Amino acid sequence: MRADHTTEILQTAARLAVDEGMDWGSAKRRALRELGLPARTPLPDNLQLEDAVREHIALFHADTQPGELRALRELALAWMRRMQAFRPYLGGAVWWGTATRRSDVVISLFCDDPKSAEIALINLQQSYEPHTTTGLRGEQVDALAVPARLAEFNEDVWVHLLIYDLDDLRGALRTDPRGRLPRGDIAAVQRLLQGDGSATLAP
After folding, report:
1. Which domain of life is it from (predicted)?
2. Which of 2, 18, 61, 175 could form a Cys-Cys staple with 65, CB 3.0–4.6 A?
């Protein structure tokens, strides 16, 4: 890939991820279309995109993003506590520290019975929408999308509860190429919030 195309793809994908809340894979593919590049154009990896996202936030959202991130982490923690019986782990942009008000909250649940989390939502009289999404190894997994009102934004935020078997938990905690855990449990999220609320997991 030509270096100038790499930069253009990264900048465009970062804008889409941050400003429109797109997941990174979709943002990279949409960037190709916006730039008029062939669909077969090699895509930059997620570590490159993460750096571009952080740069975009620093340039365009430095004044608002820390507060938005804290509000989303507090919402995530509240839902992790509600679903504590299912071993919740926070991932995605809210965990990495790159979330803005356009970001969804992504929580992985590791269940003995895959239907138990859905039953818990019914018992809480919580509305939700079942769907499928990309899982730990690129496979399709069941998920429950919960609309959660966030007063700080005066709008709903989607909390996605991804349903895994208990046996999947070990693989979920393998470190990334930079040696970081890709998701954190309740205690880890509490530690993030006990800081200044805008902490990110350093690249």
Report:
1. Bacteria
2. 61
